[in-house]
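Protocol step 4 of 6: structure prediction from sequence.
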Amino acid sequence: FVAILLPRGPYRVGAQEITVRNDTDFTFMDPALITNSNDYNIAANIYSGLLKFNPGTMEPEPDLAKSWTLSPDGLTYTFNLRDNVQWHKGYGQVTARDVKYSFDRIMDPKTKSRYRTDFQSVREVEVVNDHTVKIHFKTPDMSFVRKVLYYRPGYIVNQKAIETLKENYKSGPIGTGPFIFDRWEPGSKTILVANKDYFLGPPKLKKATFLMVNEDAVAQLALERGDIDLAVFTSAEDLA
């Protein structure tokens, strides 16, 4: 895929909004089930993981976890969580129990997560206290951080939201990331708004709209008109 960004006029900059083209409507907002890039583009703005990667160095850095250690034998990671990270929409404070629930859920065959195989080396996820969690391995897995912790299966979810919203979770996912899921208009658009309480500071953008535009040719015209700011194209011809 290739993408191109064209600036709108200065009045759009002042509005602090961005409109992004998605070529299909989203399918899942549950990290255990996300499979396609359109879903991931949205979810990446809603959720947080224990760690994230630094795009400059490609190395892991703190996200929900403020620090972490690996035991000398390579069999246990210990993560120390940030204090007072809040879930979106009043779902309370993030604790180590949320981490355990998120990972145990993916490992549960009943969830039918495609990422279950990524946890094959995990023996147990242990809650030490509200802000400390340990991941114990059967055998050392040096790829686990990059393969899981700052990728889709590493996003932490809220148990209460998953279990109470059930099928409605698709149209009301709860995370801790820089943007809050505002609404979904099926077949049309998905709108996120800034999380002013984001633990790493409020985002610069106030609103992000993911607009469904099926055809590359239509997306090309929308980009040229300034109806969208960012578009992904499958065709190099349309990009040119």
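Step 5 (inspection) to follow. Confidence is low (pLDDT under 50) at residues 1-11.
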